Amino acid sequence: MAGLYRTVMDTFWCEYVWLPPNTTWKDIAPESSAEVQHADYRHLLYPLPMALVMLSLRYVLEKYWFAPVGISIGIKNTKPKRAPSNPVLEKAYTTSKKWKHKQIQGLAKQLDMSERQVERWLRLRKGQNKPSTLTKFCENSWRCLYYTSSFIYGLAVLWNKPWLWNINECWNGFPHQSVTNDIWWYYMISMAFYWSLCVSQFFDVKRKDFWQMFIHHIATIVLMCLSWVVNVFRIGSLVLVVHDSADIFLEAAKMAKYSGYQKVCDTIFAIFTVLWIVTRLGVYPFWIIRNTSIEAPKIVPMFPAYYIFNSLLCLLLVLHCFWTYLILKIVANSLNAGQMEGDIRSSSEDYSEDSKSQ
Description:
With 358 residues, the protein is mostly helical. Helices cover 70% and strands 0% of the residues. The protein is elongated, with a radius of gyration of 24 Å. The N and C termini lie far apart (56 Å).
């Protein structure tokens, strides 16, 4: 069994696939050079316990900081009214959460209720599991705090790095590039955060793009792990800092909305929309992906892992396009309504209903 495992691992981590030509794993091992401190693949385990620490920190901050602040500015922690117990309607709801008019008529006749009573029960049942406004405010506060801290730290770390100012430096000397302590912490903390999101997503406010976000988190973690193992952390650090910048304003806009500051929300959301389009559909594809797709092959010899890495970068771009569509949809609705309606990551199964309730 051990021999089979060894064979599978050796096949998967084939040097031909993951490393440039004429390079071996020994060449980029942490102890292979006194001058170059290569990334250590064993360190990829560190983000797992760090994610647990991050989840614990989030719990403490939400309970003892974000929630009290939210309550102090008037955000209520009231839970939605529960639907009356009705086994027949509950069974029908479990089967399908969207009822057609004919089904409502049949249930009303079966239970000797009016159609309006059945519809009211359905509305209450749909809403009873929705989180309170305070819960959503706390979640957004945590994300806003993280993205702000991560962006500031990332920018500070990269400010004196040559590849921030000349992206081709990401490939000069590759794969023999040293991992500095600040880059190490930037990577480990970022991976810990995305691991924590993979866990907390199943307990957080349910979003209409649940699976898209889950794919995003997994793709991000895989990208970071691969870039770490094969020493492509320089381009990875640029991807991180570009992604964090717009997310700050999205979370801040939602915080303002839940706090009742609609004009502030609209202003921040407008900033977010512009920044999102500039970074996710401008800087990301035309600076980063353009470099990895066009410039990098001119500097380093190509190898299979490069195509895997670049494909995952393109997958993130596809997700960006999907979310941009949702953002522009919100913008269009906002212009018609005179204020920001809903949330591009709505907490409702029914987007329109959630938009009205928020």
